[in-house]
Amino acid sequence: MRKILLIFLFFLGQNLFGQEYHFDRMIQYKYLSSSFTGIRVITICFDSKDLSHYIVSRTWGEELDTYFTDTKNQIYHRYKTYDINKSNIPEYWYSSKTNDSTKTARLNELCTSISLDQTEVDNTSTKLLLTEYKNDKKKKILYQIEVISKPYDLAVLGLITKALESHFLFCEEIKISQKGLPTSLKMFSGSNIKNEITLIKETTTHFNFTVNQKEIKIKD
After folding, report:
1. pTM
2. Within 10 A of 128 (CB to CB), how many other CB atoms are there?
3. Cα–Cα distance, 176 to 186 (Å, whole number)
């Protein structure tokens, strides 16, 4: 895990020509799944003063896959570290626009086929049970996601849960407070747990990340 933190320190003080972004919060989760062996680590960094940009990194064996998303400019940039044991320097891979009308239409369609139940566990945590159905008739369940969250000073609930499991707490149909930090997330297929994600670290950090405008390659 220390190697992953060193990779983020690589971004500190870069002087490349381009737009600079600041980050001051770091959240880490461990990821277990029935589809692979071992433990993966997901690291999410964002700026408490501007949540329109954030970084999500995932370990894949010895590789580290990193996405930097800029929602204001509707673009994300992808970086790869092929062997975290040998190098802490991420390599730029490609960029992609996020304002694709086809993707937006698909997401809007998916948002009509979900439901959410919210339960206050105690004074310090809330349980959210999100159910996705086959269609908007909401009869056949495809899967369920259970999220346990605790109060947080920033509205990052949708941002983080989307990064963890690409689900739809950001849908306009779901009206919940976004000021929460997920402490655990479980994805169910029937009665079986498919994925299980647990919070392992939350901390402040301070580093700047610069997107080199000269190396951007837009991928369709």
Report:
1. 0.84
2. 21
3. 19
Residue 39 contacts residue 32 (beta carbons within 8 Å):
yes
Whether the Cβ atoms of residue 116 and residue 176 lie closer than 8 Å to each other: yes
Q: Between the CA atoms of 8, 14, 19 and 20, what dihedral angle is there, to the nearest 10 degrees?
A: 60
- The sign one gets for the Cα dihedral 48, 204, 197, 153 is negative
Residue 149 main-chain phi, psi, to 5 deg: -130, 155
Tokens of 18: 């381009």
- Once rounded to an integer, what is the mean pLDDT over residues 136-147? 88
Torsion from C-alpha of 29, 159, 203, 210, nearest 10 degrees: 110
pLDDT tier for residue 210 given thresholds of 50, 70 and 90 = confident
End-to-end CA distance of the chain: 33
Q: Residue 31 is encoded by which pair of tokens?
A: 């990821």
Q: In the sheet where 180-189 sits, what is the strand order?
A: 91-97, 75-81, 63-70, 50-60, 40-47, 18-33, 192-212, 180-189, 141-151, 125-133, 114-122
Q: How many Å separate Cα 204 from the centre of its chain?
A: 17
